[in-house]
Amino acid sequence: MIARTTLPRRFPGFALLLVTLGTFAAHAPRAHPPVEPSLLSGLAWRNLGPFRGGRISAVSGAIGQPGVFYAGLPAGGVWKTTSAGETWTPMFDAITAASSVGAVEVAPSDPNLIYVGMGDLISGGGINEGNGVYKSVDAGRTWQHLGLDSTKQIPSILVDPHDPNLVMIAAQGDVHKKSESRGVFRSTDGGKTWTRTLYVDDSTGLQKVTWAGDRPDVVLATSVRHYVTPITGPARVPAAAGGGGGGGAGAGGAGPTQTKLFKSTDKGLTWREITGGGLPRLTGRTSVAVAMNTNAQRMFVIGNFGLYRSDDGGTTWRQMDAADRRIANGQGGYNCGVYVDPKNPDVVYTINTSSYKSTDGGNTFTGFKGAPGGDDPQQMWIDPTNGQRILMGLDQGAVVTLDGGATWSSWYNQSTDQIYHITVDNSYPYWVYGSQQDAGAIRTRSRGNLGAVTPLDWNPVSGWEWGTTIPDPLNPNIVYASGLGILKITSPSEQWINVSPNVDPALYGRTTISQPLAFAPWNQHELITGFQFVMATTDGGMHWTKLSPDLGYPKDVTPPPDSVRGRGAPGAPIGGAIQSLALSTVRRGVIWVGTNNGLIKLTKDAGKTWDDVSIPDLPVPGRGDILAIDASHFDPAAAYAAVDFHVTGDYKPYFFRTRDYGKTWTAIVHGLPTDQPSGSFARVIREDTKQAGLLFAGTESGMYVSFDDGDDWQSLQLNLPTTSYRDLVIHGNDLVVGTYGRGIWVLDDYSPLRQITPATMREPVHLFAPGDAMRVRRNVGADTPFPPEVPHALNPPDGAIIYYYLAAPPVGEIALDVLDAGGAVVRHLSGAPVEPVKEAAQPPEPNFWIATPRPLPTAAGTNRVNWDLRAEAPLAIAHTFEINANPGLTPPSPEGPLVPPGVYTLKLSVGGKAYTQNVTVVNDPRSPTRVADLRAQYDLQMKLVAGMRAAWEGYHQVAALRAAVVADTASPLPAAVVAATRAFDSTLAQVGGDPEGGRGGGGGFFGGGARPAPTFVSVNENLVRQINALENGDLAPTPAMQAAYVAGCRDLQTVVTTWTGINGGALAAFNAVLAQNNTKPIAATARTLVAPACAR
User: Fewer CB within a 10 Å sphere, N or C end of the chain?
Assistant: First the structure.
């Protein structure tokens, strides 16, 4: 049965007729998305790092600019360094059509001109296809598209050393479709027009073009088969075991090969194939190089077959160092490359799992760069004018040497991680765990203690690079990781041991490399995983129990016994393995299982019985990969599935929904793109944990949200770069996404998405209810901060994240007040310009450290502002800037006190109308301090604030009187007046004080010791020191702190009394002298200054 019309649970008014699942027809397009994009405009994703680079697919450098290099990534765009690898910056984020880069080449004659070929040579679990060629003429600031979209993958580009308009590209073409958009394409007008000059056939692509910089007329090119026959049915047991080759893209083996070597002697206009002369039968992936300073006679070709050299321009060849099997492709062609020093043709580099160097023309090699486990180098660029300057692209990132490999820059400064799966724990700040391609498991804090997520806030985890890494919900010091087994990792000892039941060979468990792990919501001691059957442990992996039979076969196929590893007779279907698990949080015992061969199985009784609830009429039965399945958090009968068919050549998205335990499934894809260059296929789907019908989905090229249970989708890309979105997890009010190419991102407090309704779009103003706000300090550091070039991610905005929607910019004033439980205003924010403190104009450190105060935003759409949970900043006579600084975020000191936990009211005033919501401030769970003690601390701080205000007002009263004295006695005066003026000004200075370093209160932060008479400045400074000392932690004020306040308060009373006398009697006496000398008197300060009471 196929479900048709169903009213969405979220927006009943948005119901549409659903098409049948069997046809997968598209909905009629809407005139507008269901939610106006302006309602989402204030939300912003935050990159969390971690800064451990991912695989590099392309490298190049600027000649004549020693620090400038470029790197391309499989799904991460183009990055640039101007500091020889010290820091890297993404340069391609404005290009939203595609992000997979196969080649980057800076014109040798113009360092500002860059060509980029889209589409990575290695698929990396996707297709990583691109959309042709891009060009920049301003060093990467802007880009223009040059066409060749249908080439799909461009792994190599050449730019003439003298003519930047002469360009050649090697095009692979579509791996799943036969195509004539393959071969070598050539342009003589900078990419305006292209001519194909080399073509093998519609199944063979070109993988490499190269020349020697001093003989660009001689060009070498290599081809490889780049076509996989479309899959049309389930995998089946072959008739006989055995190898064979040639079936897949780039395959070798004994069958026909399309790997060929070609040579041109006219800059790529014409070509001839090179064969014989000692050249072996070429198979699989190859790389070639032509040595400079040899008149293009010395050439190298490397592949699975080893390294071969020619010294006569390709006529004859001999194998180099045949006994050293390192000098060949690594990992079946995953690592492949040969390069020659530009000055010395005897210096040769090759690539395997490490890189190797020869100084005798390739006869012998020694290790050049690598490590146990391998750097897995992918690409190398050697400056054609300086062989000491090299950029290497590794599986771990891009690294630079300026001294021929003696020292290298780090790859721990690039947020280009290729993440497969992510999970979070229950700690605060919560940890995000991920499995990272080629680097292993990793975890990073969602928030750092030092004002940013620094290198102190992330670390490797002893898990695999592919699978699931999941923390124990009851013990954050225990983590489990799948991939090649199931590891139990224990901190702080960092011990890790394989506790997988598959260690027992009698089990014969089939797994995917992304083997799922999940803890049962109904029993958090129970860890559940999937092989071809579901298994569970309640004692940390010591013992395992099967919860299901073999679930990897359709219901009409009897699984073979485990002893034959799930493989039946020739022609029988090959059993699948469990790819995804979803455990219901609504009903105990409900488990959904998705397999890598398109099946969905369900139990409602924790495994006692199972039903096959697979989606019917899928495009290619037995070949859909159920990458994600999510059990509804509100309805035990509802679930969502993401199904991937890209291995069949179908790049469209397939998302499904059931509301009846899988009896019927509905395709939910309306609004999703289907034809993005890098693919639009489904990766992950998740339902919100607090709002029914709010769904999130990630595809190979974008992030999406649905407000009506999947009936309609719209972009949630916001500020995200185009990349591959592999996994999603919700933690409280945060949405966390793992990407294959750009690391981990967080949408902090997306509460507005849970509150948007059709009515919201009709309101002129809407104030959204914020999530709970955690009472934490911006930065708890006490000394020198990390320099800005140390890689770091931003922390979430401090305190409460507040969103409000404006249908149009307000005509009048806009203000946001925070009120306490008694209705008193704690903090006032407005749309008026904010005047920075005077010290911000010339701070003692570079200005980039200093936070710029900003008014409330007033743009049409949703705006975001954060209240940092502080009261108004106290009135300080002089300000400093915190030593625990963060670039662009360092506030002036002192700051207002942190408010105690409790419920506060937000009052947004726009156009004379007020809109209110409550926000709950909760204490940092790491703080042991009681709320009563925090209130006592706050009360003392507010007393200090009141004292500071009185001292500030007193100082400015004194300063105003001094200014009046100077102004009114500026002309030549009798000697008596001059003497009286000097004496009176000295009296005023003794009560006012000098903010530029005059007398201050001595005796330490809290007073004590011998001190001179207090002044308004010294009192204000003393109270500043006290409030800053209280700022450093949560505690009930100590008796010494209370005594310090009383002492400071009494000093204030003393100076106020002195000032009152001066403003009265002393001023009258001075005015008498002025009157005696016919000089205009000075008016007394009208406002009476009152010192606060000094009770503890």
Answer: N
